Amino acid sequence: QVQLVESGGGLVQAGGSLRLSCAGSGRAFSTSAMGWFRQAPGKEREFVAGIRWSGRRTSYTESVKGRFTISGDNAKNTVYLQMNSLKPEDTAVYYCAKKIGGNSEVPPYDYWGQGTQVTVSS
Known about the structure:
The chain is mainly β. Helix content is 0%, strand content 49%. The protein contains no helices and 11 strands. It has strands at 4-7, 10-13, 18-24, 33-39, 46-52, 58-60, 68-73, 78-83, 92-99, 111-112, 116-121. The strands form 2 sheets. Strands 2, 4, 5, 6, 9, 10 and 11 form a 7-stranded mixed sheet that branches. It has a 4-stranded antiparallel sheet with strand order 1-3-8-7, with no helix packed on it. It is globular. It starts with a strand and ends with a strand. The model has no long low-confidence stretch (mean pLDDT 94).
């Protein structure tokens, strides 16, 4: 029912930047928060960043603070993840997620996109 489509992944050299986008098909009023998760080889899915759709409060995992910035466009029902100073350790499949209930921007989330591959080479 709810569709989330990620774009912007790719191959980048260490120290470079990528900007991920995720467009949601649902109405904006149904969104309480949107966020990004990632799953690296050998690891479970990890929360990366989230943003409340009202108030714009954000949360980040410690490893990306100061390098990644999450933002959203309520009118377009779209969330972005600007990734700077990328490291090989950031290599993962990045998933967009949407929360339709609750009052926080941290997990759990309710819906997931299919993911976009981010590969950072040294």
